[in-house]
């Protein structure tokens, strides 16, 4: 879940005292600091005097309508995330509220639970947007999304090494973003205007790799009908990115070492050598040190490539970045597929944060793409595949404490699950259906809440 300010401040502007009061009680129970205002003038004063994280704004306010007030704030650059409410608004006004940038629209009367849930969602959304903005303002990050300490450290190290000539070896599991880090180093180096040539060493057949890297003269081997430049030559004055470097055959390793040591290459079938000025960045998900021990990777080349090692953390080492990444990826994918903006609800986000992501950001991206196309406006746990839900969440297994808000929620959840189970004579599938959750999720909640068969069969 996104992190919220310790105690967010909410401004409630409604001319009906009872409504103000009801909202205030509901949100204060959620731990929010609520300031109630009965007219635009006093609301404007509050906004002038302090930082407000969220506004709950009535559309029909008497002297000036809420939409006009919101637009005025927008034009002054002082609008805050806002939930519009109204008892008599027309459909057109409700649509307008969303169009001008309201986070949500609630029709009165609404329950305390409804406003609490929407307010929390709005605050979480705003906090994520703020983190994304702060991140994007930071120089040189390129497309790398994340503000966890591990990612910040990685970016700081990558920026430090970017404008040197040092070889960099980027390690990390598959799909963690090693190529993005290489792009970032190139973009922040003095070689940024020269090309970065990418070689996927595991995708080129062994008999072609040397010609791909160093080029060949006409007639150098059967099928070499015309001379060809190699990637080293194309990368002259720029960067050669050797992806999956552990898969380089030993013959090519020897030639790369020579090229790096002497700054010279020799095309296949050529007599003379060619001077090249190339910086090498390499990446691998394998343990290259181990490959050296196994004899599949040259030790001298290993040291040559590993002048500066950078390790990209796996996604499960930086779960804090998951909501940021999810938001970023979802909005990018919505734009790509021409879909209306969609959001991931809190429960589904919680599940995404708990999953272990063996395929890292790439897996997250692929999953979201699949889910996004099939889901409605909001992505819920019902849209998530079983593999994401069927993991144990140690946090859920914590014993219940005494009297926190969480305990109250747990108790209410336990009562509801038990009542529904009893209603369906213990049938888990029907209970899950009734409660709009998936079976594995229900099982996990049942075990976290200590619900066993004897509780609903009365045995
Ligand atoms: N921090 C991140 N922010 C945004 N997108 C990311 C991030 N990390 C990875 N991605 C995205 O995830 C996908 C995989 O990233 P990338 O190809 O850089 O991973 P990799 O570590 O090089 O994988 P492999 O080892 O399989 O080559 C890409 O589409 C990339 O844009």
Automatic annotation (TrEMBL):
This is Sigma-54-dependent Fis family transcriptional regulator. SMART domains: AAA (SM00382), REC (SM00448). Residues 9-123 form the Response regulatory domain. Residues 144-373 form the Sigma-54 factor interaction domain. It comes from the Bacteria. It comes from Steroidobacter gossypii. Keywords: ATP-binding, Nucleotide-binding, Phosphoprotein, Transcription, Transcription regulation. The modification 4-aspartylphosphate is found at residue 58.
């Amino acid at each position: 879940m996104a992190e919220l300010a310790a105690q967010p401040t909410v401004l409630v502007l409604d001319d009906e005292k009872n409504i103000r009061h009801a909202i205030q009680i509901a949100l204060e129970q959620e731990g929010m600091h609520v300031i109630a205002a009965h007219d635009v003038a006093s609301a404007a004063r509050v906004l002038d005097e302090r930082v407000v994280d969220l506004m709950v704004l009535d559309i029909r306010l008497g002297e000036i309508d809420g939409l006009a007030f919101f637009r005025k704030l927008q034009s002054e650059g002082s609008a805050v995330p806002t939930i519009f409410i109204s008892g008599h608004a027309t459909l057109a006004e409700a649509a307008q509220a969303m169009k001008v940038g309201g986070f949500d629209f609630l029709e009165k009367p609404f329950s305390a639970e409804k406003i609490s849930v929407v307010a929390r969602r709005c605050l979480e959304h705003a906090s994520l947007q703020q983190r994304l903005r702060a991140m994007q303002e930071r120089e040189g990050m390129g497309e790398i999304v994340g503000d966890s300490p591990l990612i910040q450290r990685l970016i700081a190290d990558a920026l430090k090494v970017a404008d040197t000539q040092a070889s960099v070896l980027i390690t990390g599991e598959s799909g963690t973003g090693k190529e993005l880090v290489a792009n970032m180093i190139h973009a922040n180096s003095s070689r940024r205007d020269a090309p970065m040539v990418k070689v996927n060493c595991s995708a080129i057949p062994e008999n072609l790799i040397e010609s791909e890297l160093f080029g060949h003269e006409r007639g150098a081997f059967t099928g070499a009908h015309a001379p060809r430049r190699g990637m080293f030559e194309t990368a002259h004055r720029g960067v050669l990115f050797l992806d999956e470097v552990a898969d380089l055959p030993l013959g090519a390793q020897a030639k790369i070492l020579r090229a790096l040591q002497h700054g010279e290459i020799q095309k296949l079938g050529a007599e003379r050598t060619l001077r090249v000025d190339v910086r090498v960045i390499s990446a691998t998900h394998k343990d290259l040190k181990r490959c050296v021990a196994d004899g599949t990777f040259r030790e001298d080349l290993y040291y040559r490539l590993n002048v500066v090692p950078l390790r990209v953390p796996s996604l499960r080492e930086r779960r804090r970045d998951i909501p940021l990444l999810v938001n970023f990826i979802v909005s990018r994918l919505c734009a790509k597929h021409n879909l209306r903006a969609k959001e991931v609800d809190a429960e589904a986000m919680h599940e995404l944060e708990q999953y272990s992501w063996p395929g890292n950001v790439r897996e997250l991206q692929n999953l979201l793409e699949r889910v996004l196309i099939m889901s409605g406006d909001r992505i819920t746990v019902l849209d998530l595949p079983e593999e994401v839900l069927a993991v144990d969440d140690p946090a859920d297994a914590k014993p219940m404490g005494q009297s926190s808000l969480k305990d109250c929620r747990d108790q209410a959840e336990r009562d509801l699950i038990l009542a529904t189970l009893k209603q369906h004579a213990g049938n888990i599938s029907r209970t899950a259906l009734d409660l709009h959750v998936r079976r594995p999720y229900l099982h996990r909640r049942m075990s976290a809440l200590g619900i066993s068969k004897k509780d609903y069969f009365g045995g």
